[in-house]
């Protein structure tokens, strides 16, 4: 099977490619990535069944050429602008990449007419924030995005669903919690905090630091994505979630304990202005994914952090 992966030099995409190449000897991967600031070609291991193509998903000519030239059987679409903070100041770029780029892929795939599957990777942020008592959004929950990034991801999902209903394109959507692990660019909270502490700087905490996130290890996301790709039902949505939930202050304290001598929270943090709007908490119900047979393996957050620190 020939698979086109978009954004495969980014954090989630590269971890998925490395996982899939080790696990499945019957696939060849073609990775198209524009190599923006947070992508690195070196994130993907050299492999005879891996081919890199530098380019942008907003180019329909390029995408169409790849589909025909390499007889692509399926697309796994990771490519996106994903840094929420930047989306407040540069929202038009997020629309261009996340919405128009997805539309280009869908239209090229429709015209190509030979895809067996189009898997679109989305985010739990499309659901919007929930309170502490909320037990988890399920796949049919109302979408309520509250920042420009999440809104563009929700818009892209509607396009994906429309291409199934209008043209019977075999689409599947994945919505995922916050991912952490190797090769993550230090704009996201865990690698950013690690970098700041190793450079002897204070951790920058938005607002009060009480926002909460569920953090899932990158290889568990890769295994879930691979399972959904093979066993997920067409025109369905699957949440990839974890029970490892922490506040930003929790994460700060854990990393301060691991990387400093005095381990005093107050001496290693500084509070900065919060985002224009910062969702308090996200939570997803992962029942449908578990019913496919998936099990989360890397469930000890502290051990995962220690492993991550040993690699950096």
Would you write up a description of this structure?
The protein has 312 residues and is α/β, with parallel strands linked by helices. It has one domain: Rossmann fold. It is built from 10 helices and 12 strands. It has a 7-stranded parallel beta sheet, with helices on both faces. Helix 5 links the parallel strand 5 and strand 6. The longest helix is centred in the first third of the chain and has 22 residues. It is globular, with a radius of gyration of 19 Å. The two termini are 34 Å apart. Keywords: Lyase, NAD. This is NAD(P)-binding domain-containing protein. Its cofactor is NAD(+).
What's the short version?
The chain is α/β, with parallel strands linked by helices and 312 residues long. It is built from 10 helices and 12 strands. Helix 1 (11-23) packs across helix 7 and helix 2 (60-69) runs parallel beside helix 4 (91-112).
Number of strands: 12
Work out the strand percent: 15-25%
Taking pLDDT < 50 over at least 5 consecutive residues as the criterion, the unreliable ranges are none
Largest sheet: 7 strands, parallel
Tally of helical segments:
10
- The largest beta-sheet arranges its strands as 3-2-1-4-5-6-10
What order do the helices and strands come in, and which of them pair?
Elements: E1 2-6, H1 11-23, E2 28-33, E3 50-54, H2 60-69, E4 74-77, H3 84-89, H4 91-112, E5 117-123, H5 148-167, E6 171-176, E7 178-180, H6 189-198, E8 203-206, E9 212-217, H7 218-231, E10 236-240, E11 245-247, H8 248-259, E12 269-272, H9 287-291, H10 301-311
Parallel strand pairs: 1-2, 1-4, 2-3, 4-5, 5-6, 6-10, 7-9, 8-12
Antiparallel strand pairs: 9-11
GO molecular function: dTDP-glucose 4,6-dehydratase activity
Cofactor: NAD(+)
InterPro entries: dTDP_Gluc_deHydtase, NAD(P)-bd_dom, NAD(P)-bd_dom_sf
């Amino acid at each position: 099977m020939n698979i086109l992966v978009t954004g495969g030099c980014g954090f989630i995409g590269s971890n998925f490619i490395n996982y899939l190449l080790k696990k499945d000897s019957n696939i060849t991967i073609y990775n198209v990535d524009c190599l923006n600031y947070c992508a690195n070609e070196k994130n993907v291991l050299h492999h005879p069944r891996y081919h890199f193509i530098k380019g942008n998903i907003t180019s329909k000519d390029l995408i169409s050429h790849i589909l025909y030239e390499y007889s692509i059987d399926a697309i796994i679409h990771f490519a996106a602008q994903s840094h929420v903070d930047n989306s407040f100041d540069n929202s038009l770029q997020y629309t261009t990449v996340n919405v128009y780029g997805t539309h280009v892929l869908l239209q090229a795939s429709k015209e190509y007419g030979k895809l067996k599957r189009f898997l679109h990777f989305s985010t739990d942020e499309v659901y919007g924030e929930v309170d502490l008592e909320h037990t988890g959004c399920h796949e049919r929950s109302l979408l309520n995005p509250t920042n420009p990034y999440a809104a563009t991801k929700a818009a892209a999902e509607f396009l994906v669903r429309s291409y199934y209903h209008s043209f019977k394109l075999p689409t599947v959507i994945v919505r995922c919690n916050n991912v952490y692990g190797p090769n993550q660019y230090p704009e996201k909270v865990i690698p950013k905090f690690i970098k700041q502490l190793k450079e002897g700087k204070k951790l920058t905490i938005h607002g009060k630091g009480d926002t909460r996130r569920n953090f899932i290890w990158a290889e568990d996301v890769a295994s879930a994505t691979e399972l959904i790709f093979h066993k997920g039902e067409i025109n369905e949505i699957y949440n990839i979630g974890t029970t490892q939930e922490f506040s930003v202050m929790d994460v700060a304290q854990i990393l301060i304990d691991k990387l400093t001598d005095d381990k005093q929270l107050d001496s290693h943090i500084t509070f900065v202005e919060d985002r224009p709007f910062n969702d308090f908490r996200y939570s997803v119900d992962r029942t449908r994914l578990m019913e496919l047979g998936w099990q989360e393996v890397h469930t000890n957050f502290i051990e995962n952090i220690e492993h991550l620190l040993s690699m950096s």
